[in-house]
Specification:
- A hairpin with a 5-residue loop joins β9 (178-182) and β10 (188-190).
- It is built from 7 helices and 16 strands.
- The chain has helices at 30-34, 57-70, 79-92, 161-173, 216-227, 239-243, 276-288, and strands at 10-13, 16-19, 37-39, 42-46, 52-54, 98-105, 119-125, 136-144, 178-182, 188-190, 195-200, 203-206, 232-234, 247-252, 256-263, 266-267.
- The mean pLDDT is 96.
- By secondary structure, the chain is α+β, with helices and mostly antiparallel strands.
- 25% of the residues lie in helices and 27% in strands.
- The protein has 2 domains: 10-126, Aminotransferase class 4, branched-chain amino acid transferase, N-terminal domain (D-amino Acid Aminotransferase, Chain A, domain 1); 136-289, D-amino Acid Aminotransferase, subunit A, domain 2 (D-amino Acid Aminotransferase, Chain A, domain 2, Alpha-Beta Barrel), CATH 3.20.10.10.
- Strands 8, 9, 10, 11, 12, 13, 14, 15 and 16 form a 9-stranded mixed sheet that branches.
- α2 crosses α3 (79-92).
- The radius of gyration is 20 Å and the shape is globular.
- Its cofactor is pyridoxal 5'-phosphate.
- Acts on leucine, isoleucine and valine.
- This is Branched-chain-amino-acid aminotransferase.
Amino acid sequence: MYSYYNDNTFLYINGEYTKANAATTDLYGQSLHYGYAVFEGIRAYKTANGEVKIFKAKEHFDRLKRSCELIHIPYKFDNEELIAACYKVLEMNNMEEAYIRPLVFCPPNMTLKAASESQILICAWEWGAYLGEKLLRVMTSSYERPNPKAFKIESKSAGLYVNSILASQEAKEKGYDEALLLDMNGYVAEGPGANIFFEKDGKIYTPPAGNILPGITRATVIELCQELNIPLEEKLFTIAELKEAEAAFFCGTAAELIGLDSLDGQSFSKPWAQSLGKTLQQAYKAKVLEKAFQREAQLA
């Protein structure tokens, strides 16, 4: 089992820095019993000039606050102070490249009333690309993403990830690397922890906001398409349409950007090395490392 901390690991909790193995939480908290919590996944990189930088820290903490507001968890924290705390946690743990996890959680309350106060944790650990480096064999999940009328889909809420665990576990039990979920109308939504893009006829497509978590890495990919003059369209599409794509990829902070080998056993027609996804993968890595990126000509 992966070890996220050891005897020397420090974390931040409610304004203080403490050893991870000395931190405690209340077993009667709403977050533990009902999944009533929100979180972020953030990455820090050692950039080309040797400086440790947290990628899009402001955007992540803005979303953390927005997630709390959407599900009525009080957010009385100062985001600039929290970003500074992230850097301090990295420094105290001698980390240059790490995955950072802020979590806003709620105190004891066995009722289903909204919380009247909240607490915050920031921890970090060294973590490679969540889905690995190899192209993924993906299956269409039998699970759907929750209906937006039943949940605040744009909130990165802890409880929502039970859906992701079910879908991902189903895929692995059937011999696949990861799942792809549809929305309640049968359109492609997203992976259990990543957004989906596909390429066809020189253009990139991705589902619009509404039935998905609009990821920060997703937004970065859209920015990169604009910078590289790659046509992009947000639209609803079906699994059948996706299977006609030339290439496809997942993206997310934990996964970064990773190509799909196949969907339901059907391979994509364009070699990954020749795809726009590969170009975007390289451009994304250059962006987080603050390196210059020179787009190479696509091979015919």
